[in-house]
Specification:
Blueprint lengths: L2 H13 L5 H7 L5 E6 L3 E10 L3 E8 L2 E8 L3 E6 L6 H26 L1
Antiparallel strand pairs: 1-2, 1-5, 2-3, 3-4
């Protein structure tokens, strides 16, 4: 019974328009680390160089040298800011710390109840 309202919500969420790449690029400060997906490739490590009405320019490390690449918005599929992301090791340590804290609280509750 619960599945019908959830499926309707998901259906209407699919009808919402996708976020405009141009407006997203304009909100990012210059020098922001990016993950860019074009029609043909995915660039994992790039930095935003400039934003224009036609497209964006990014800096990419290519063969040991920084290379500036320009893309029109029509060539881009996806644009994601990588700033503020947690590294894999830090995520594991944070998860272990939270689990340790929960186990300590449970131990104290069990000792107090005993």
């Amino acid at each position: 019974m619960l599945f019908r309202p959830i499926s309707l919500l998901l259906f209407f969420a699919l009808l919402l328009p996708a976020r405009d790449l141009r407006s997203m690029a304009l909100q990012l400060p210059l020098g922001t680390p990016l993950r860019v997906q074009t029609q043909t490739q995915t660039i994992v490590k790039a930095r935003l160089q400039s934003v224009t009405d036609e497209g964006i320019s990014i800096l990419v490390l290519d063969g040991g040298a920084l290379k500036e690449q320009t893309y029109r918005y029509s060539e881009l599929r996806y644009l994601e800011s990588r700033a503020g992301r947690m590294s894999g090791g830090r995520a594991v340590l944070t998860t272990l710390g939270i689990l340790y804290g929960i186990s300590m609280v449970c131990t104290l509750v069990l000792l107090a109840a005993h």
